[in-house]
Automatic annotation (TrEMBL):
Keyword annotations from UniProtKB, A to Z: Cell outer membrane, Membrane, Signal
Claim: Membrane is one of the keywords in the record: yes
Pfam families, sorted: SusD-like_3 (PF14322), SusD_RagB (PF07980)
Location of this chain's protein in the cell: Cell outer membrane
Species name: Flavivirga jejuensis
Coiled-coil region: none
InterPro entries: SusD-like_N, SusD_RagB_dom, TPR-like_helical_dom_sf
Family: Belongs to the SusD family.
Stated name of the protein: RagB/SusD family nutrient uptake outer membrane protein
Residue ranges occupied by any RagB/SusD domain in the UniProt entry: 371-488
Domain SusD-like N-terminal: from-to ranges: 100-253
Length: 493
């Protein structure tokens, strides 16, 4: 594959600017980037391995080339980075604007919004493929280096191998979501190659594997990683046992074949007590502080020397009250699903516009150069647990979990009396209300539940996406087909 031919096991050891500690933002001195550190050095010392892992997380916020094909240009001429290919958050926001609840102005992400961004040579396709496979390769490098190190003790090896497997599982899950139909449509479909060893300059791309094999690897990696991951971590930008359990719970929402494990994984992530887990001080405070106890995992921004803090979605697109892109609006009909006493009803008509799609903006996200970005929250895990209880036939438990969140957000909330499909619909609506703008929950749920996305007429671009439509996944990049002899054009027909 293309990216594998570009990478080798001479590392670019990127040391992150900030380490987070506990529930406060504490700092270590900023180490300098060091190029060309060999594996023989990296895997001799725990602290250097940890720095390598920190560098992997830093890539989640890295800037990526526009077309990802100009890497042979002279130094300083090969980076045409754009806001919609900026790392993990950009992939999440591309999903966000594909639904009905959020409306994107003709700005960044406009082709994602109009479902016209899945072509084989488009930067959305190339970025999403390249970003995830690069991180997978780093995870494979980490596993091999730790395993073969004569200098690291066994406890350190187990911990860092677990971190690497959790990272690898997370990114194969993203590839499965982005480049394949829903798991329960056709588990035999072959679109995604599997790599469990590091790439070298001599590497030849693997053939694509059945989707069932991809999910088996994801689930195996997570189930092997979770017991060996620590609870403690350097900060909330790092993966620990709770975050990996959150990964597992999300995957099981897609496979829908082990609701008991989905519930136990969600509980392990949020801490079993739903009423305390959902408490948050971020609502009406900008939703930009990962020290909030509800946040499990997030991007930390230091406000001074991050490489792309001025692009960081969702804040810089959704905030219309500060200097930003002023690009994202809220569907009036979605706004109307919130009660007037719900703390999440943070919508304003600031433009007095006669253009329907510009009627409401949200103040959920306040942009600044220090805006942290949510990637996983305990409240999401409580709602996953509610869905699991519903599917296990325990509707009273599902209603109680739903009410734990609803009553925290709205003092006038009452315990749901819904049952059957009406209760499931209520859980899905609550997911949209709680998580809008964060990770593309509406798109994610429509894909896994095999339901359409139908847009209201208030949208700038009205496009309806049928259930199981090919619009729910991207084409394989042409660059991959050209570079990998085991991939061919028929995958995109």
């Amino acid at each position: 594959m293309k990216i594998y031919n570009k990478l080798n096991i001479t590392f670019l050891l990127v040391l992150v600017v900030t380490f987070l500690s506990g529930c406060s933002k504490d700092f270590l001195d900023e180490p300098k980037n060091t190029a060309g550190i060999s594996g023989d050095i990296v895997f001799t010392d725990r602290d250097i391995v940890q720095a390598f892992i920190t560098g992997i997380y830093a890539r989640y916020k890295g800037q990526w080339d526009d077309d990802l094909t100009n890497d042979n240009l002279p130094e300083g001429e090969g980076n045409d980075s754009n806001a919609d290919t900026g790392g993990l958050y950009a992939m999440y926001f591309a999903r966000t604007v594909k639904g009905n609840d959020i409306i994107q102005a003709p700005s960044w992400f406009l082709f994602d919004y109009s479902h016209e961004n899945r072509g084989t040579t488009f930067r959305r396709t190339s970025f999403t493929w390249t970003f995830n496979y690069e991180i997978i390769n780093y995870a494979n490098v980490l596993i091999k280096g730790v395993r073969e190190s004569p200098d690291l003790n066994e406890a350190t090896k187990k911990e860092f191998t677990a971190v690497a497997k959790a990272i690898r599982a997370f990114h194969y899950f993203q590839l499965a979501l982005e480049f394949a139909p829903n798991y329960n449509n056709d588990r035999t479909v072959t679109r995604i190659p599997i790599y469990t060893e590091p790439a070298t300059v001599e590497s030849i791309g693997n053939p694509p594997s059945p989707l069932s094999d991809v999910y088996n690897l994801i689930l195996t990696d997570l189930k092997e990683a979770i017991p060996d991951l620590p609870e403690d971590r350097l900060g909330k930008s790092y993966i620990n046992k709770a975050v990996a359990n959150g990964f597992l719970a999300r995957v099981l929402l897609v496979t829908q074949d082990d609701w008991e494990l989905a519930s136990s994984a969600a509980k392990a992530a949020y801490g079993s007590n739903a009423s305390t887990a959902v408490v948050s001080s971020n609502w009406d405070a900008g939703f930009n502080d990962l020290t909030d106890q509800d946040w499990l995992w997030g991007h930390f921004q230091d406000g001074s020397n991050e490489s792309n803090f001025f692009w960081m979605a969702p804040h810089v697109f959704m905030d219309h009250l500060s200097i930003s892109f002023l690009a994202t609006y809220v569907n009036t009909n979605f706004r109307d699903t919130f009660s007037d006493t719900d703390v999440r009803k943070l919508f304003q008509d600031i433009y007095d516009s006669e253009t329907p799609y510009r009627e409401f903006v949200t103040t959920k996200f306040a942009f600044s150069f220090e805006s942290d970005v949510p990637l996983m929250r305990k409240s999401e895990m409580v709602l996953i647990d509610a869905e699991a209880q519903y599917n296990l036939g325990r509707e009273p438990e599902a209603r109680d979990l739903l009410f734990a969140l609803q009553s925290e957000r709205d003092p006038n909330a009452t315990l749901s009396s819904n049952s059957g499909s009406a209760l499931m619909d209520e859980i899905l609506l609550e997911r949209r209300k709680e998580l809008y703008g964060e990770l593309g929950v509406e798109w994610f749920d429509a894909k896994r539940m095999r339901t359409p996305i139908n847009r209201d007429d208030v949208h700038r671009v009205v496009v309806n996406v049928p259930a199981d439509s090919e619009l729910f996944y991207l084409n394989i990049p042409q660059s991959e087909i050209d570079a990998n002899p085991n991939m061919d054009e028929s995958l995109n027909q």
